[in-house]
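Subject: design request, 363 residues
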């Protein structure tokens, strides 16, 4: 029943007038008619039409076919002039757990397009309208990320030599793991992500029941979960689970832990920006701080009060001014556009004090 509900929810969402029928490739953009120009309000209401306000174009409800034939839903914002044959830097946004491309990063994507980027978002395997099963950032999910890059380069004005990866929560982990596996990614922004998966599920050999329940229930209602997730969830909660079973779960978590992707990132000196919220008990900061300490390429760490994903969510969905995404934009401008904005020469740690708006910097 829950899976049926999740699929029906996805079907209802994509059937509203904002979103057209899925297509294998994004349609091309066209200039607005005089009538469309007169009533134009937002690109979400006129996909495929070049905005008379800022020149961007929104293309929605297309699919990316992966190497194993699964289709992932996605959308893209194109910058002004994208139809003219020029190439532009691009950022790929991977969806969070139980979130989807058709709402999560819409505001951020539009702002990036206004700033001259191709901004693509996709829904991770198994969630909403994307096919397959939820694999918790396994090998096939990482391969999906590369398949999305393939589509991006083949079907948009994205410059293959200037691609960044960004995401919140589940999307943060997918972005880091995807960047480690695919040399086309030249910069990463990871927000409210995890470093060691087992630390988040079973830190200090203690289950995290609240967040395990939230993740399992939300995944059940919005996606198609791999049965092993339920098996391992029950085992972690059971105090009588054998050490051998815990070792099995730990081994399962190793390739799903971005902290273990550090060598690949360091080998290419991939610039990595990380943002963490102090009261995040879903993706606790400690192992992420260890991961940050091991990065040898350009890096920056933002720390601020808040629970999981709270500091960045409004900027992602609504596109409002947001301190986290302001830094993400500077990060991408530096490493994808080559703008000497000082983000790489500033102190590496930017910390906002609790109960106050002041930020402090640390070397």
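Subject: RE: design request

Done. Sequence follows.
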């Amino acid at each position: 029943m829950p899976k049926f509900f999740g699929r029906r929810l996805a079907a209802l969402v994509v059937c509203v007038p904002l979103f057209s029928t899925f297509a294998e490739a994004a349609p091309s953009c066209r200039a607005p008619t005089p009538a469309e120009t007169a009533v134009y309000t937002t690109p979400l209401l006129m996909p495929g039409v070049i905005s008379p306000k800022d020149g961007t174009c929104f293309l929605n409800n297309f699919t990316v076919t992966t190497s194993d034939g699964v289709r992932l839903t996605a959308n893209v914002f194109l910058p002004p002039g994208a139809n003219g044959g020029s190439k532009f830097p691009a950022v790929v946004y991977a969806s969070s757990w139980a979130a989807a491309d058709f709402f999560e990063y819409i505001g951020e994507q539009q702002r990036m397009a206004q700033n001259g980027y191709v901004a693509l978002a996709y829904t991770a395997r198994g969630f909403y309208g994307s096919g397959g099963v939820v694999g918790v950032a396994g090998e096939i999910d990482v391969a999906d990320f590369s398949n999305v890059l393939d589509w991006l380069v083949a079907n948009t004005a994205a410059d293959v030599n200037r691609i960044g990866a960004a995401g919140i929560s589940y999307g943060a982990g997918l972005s880091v793991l995807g960047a480690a596996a695919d040399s086309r990614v030249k910069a990463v922004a990871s927000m409210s992500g995890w470093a060691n998966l087992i630390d988040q599920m079973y830190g200090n050999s203690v289950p995290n029941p609240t967040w395990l329940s939230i993740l399992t229930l939300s995944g059940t209602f919005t996606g198609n979960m791999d049965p092993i997730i339920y098996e391992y969830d029950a085992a972690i909660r059971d105090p009588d689970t054998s050490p051998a079973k815990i070792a099995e779960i730990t081994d399962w978590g190793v390739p799903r832990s971005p902290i273990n992707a550090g060598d690949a990132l360091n080998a290419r000196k991939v610039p990595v920006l990380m943002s963490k919220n102090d009261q995040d008990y879903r993706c606790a900061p400690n192992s992420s701080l260890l991961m940050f300490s091991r990065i040898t390429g350009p890096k920056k760490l933002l720390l601020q009060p808040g629970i999981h994903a709270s500091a960045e969510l409004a900027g992602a969905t609504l596109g409002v001014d947001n301190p986290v995404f302001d830094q993400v934009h500077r990060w991408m401008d530096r490493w994808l556009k080559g703008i000497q904005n000082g983000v790489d020469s500033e102190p590496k740690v930017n910390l906002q004090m609790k109960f106050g708006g002041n930020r402090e910097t640390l070397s």
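The beta strands are 57-65, 71-78, 88-94, 118-122, 158-168, 185-191, 272-277, 299-304, 349-352, 359-362.
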